[in-house]
Amino acid sequence: MSFNFREKLQSPAIKQAIVVLVTIVALFPAVTSLILSVNQPQVQSNLQLYQIDLNLQASETPATLDGGDPDDFRSLQASLLGEDPLATAEKQYETTLATARKSLEKLQKTENRRSIVRRRGDPLYDQINFVQEVELKLGTIEAELGKTEEAEKIWRKIIDNADKELYKPSTVKSALLLEGLYDDPPRVLPNAAKRIERNFRGWFRDTALERLYSSENRPEALEALRQERGERAIKALQTLLLISLLPILCALVGIALLIALLVQFFLRKDRSLLYLGENQAWETPWDAYTIWLVLVVGFFFAGQIVLPVLFGGLWALLSIDAGSFSLSYKAIYIVISYLALTIAGLSVLYLALAPFRPLPNGWFRFRWWGRWPLWGIGGYFVALPLVIVVSLINQRLWQGQGGSNPLLTLALESRDTVALVCFAFTATIAAPFFEEILFRGFLLPSLTRYFPVWGAIGLSSLVFALAHQSLSEVLPLTVLGCVLGFVYTRSKNLLSSMLIHGLWNGGTLLSLYLLGSSAG
């Protein structure tokens, strides 16, 4: 009796066992990341602090306005910043600090302290230092409000904390420096100016330098600093106008478009742009097994298992510690790893659909002529108010928890040209190209074999959101995915959803860059 191995593999029972095993292995890292993200802080806290710091910078009064009216400038400041920006900043910092402490308590309960790595990237180490950074800045705000005793308590707590071996050394040195500058009489530490320039940014750097120059009785340096602060206030106000008013204007356009589309839907029903009928579905010749093969093997198994093992083996072979990469090298690594995932995913997609070629009409359509730019730009405007509203609700639900895309933090803090170019390429070109082919080009149409069109759009959007592995982003990304899916379904052109995706990521990246660079 001969044993036919190939025949055994074709057995339904064996095939089903392989499917279950590969699914468990492929999805385990993704599910684990989702579960762990529950206790991880959102990048939103960082974004809010950068916005507050920018507000403080913009609150300074310039010495000259190059012909502008000082009263108009102060009126604009009051409109954007409120009557007392410093008191507002105090409240916002206290709120952020309370949320950050809750996140730290949850992390301390779940993390094994012995496994903490004393470098950026370890969740507990990062959160401890984030809390101390917020406390450090809150102390400066309290001191500038005249609450010197409260400020000194904050700084002394940082200095005396029993866990200070987990702090960044600069945090403790900065607390010592500030404590001395606000003492009576002031105590100036050696190399204070260099430490301030190195460890502080924006309004906090300028405030510490002003205190230092006053303590050292350096009127010329003080006058030059005040001149610079005024110039930076003008630039900060311009940046605030751009990052605050531009999204609002775009969202208003989106609301107007939504109202017009809803009116058209109620008046014209099945002849309206919002109507989704079964005639919008695709002819799908493959079954659920092919969907599983592409999604689980081509995306999750390749991205969560194969590529990490290959890159990990390469780093081990070359004796390279990838965790110690500079920001530029991290950005380059992100581009390379994402391109590798794209090649792997599209290769599996190509091989999985090979038996069904030629594909039915309408699959993976790229048409350079037509109305796809209108669909893309219109979809972007409509997505803005929808995602903004859902994000506001989402913030109330998660209270600063649920994790975020780590790329956002890197982009926010990046001032390296190479890193910024890499982030821009990944976010605006590579990600829209690959993810739209996979989730809108393949998954959504495939699901119309089993679900109505609106159900396929919703389910594919949920999978798209979960694939980003941050629970706090699931709701907003599902809504965004629905807009992407709807636009692709109606336009039957992947370029339209790619344009929305690229504009969305590009707008986010631009906002992060403006916030990060303006806080310098």
UniProtKB/TrEMBL annotation:
Coiled coil location: 90-151
GO biological process: CAAX-box protein maturation
GO molecular function: endopeptidase activity
Keyword Glycoprotein recorded: no
Pfam families associated with the record: Rce1-like (PF02517)
Keywords carried by this UniProt record: Coiled coil, Membrane, Transmembrane, Transmembrane helix
The protein's name in its UniProt record: Type II CAAX endopeptidase family protein
Provenance organism: Pannus brasiliensis CCIBt3594
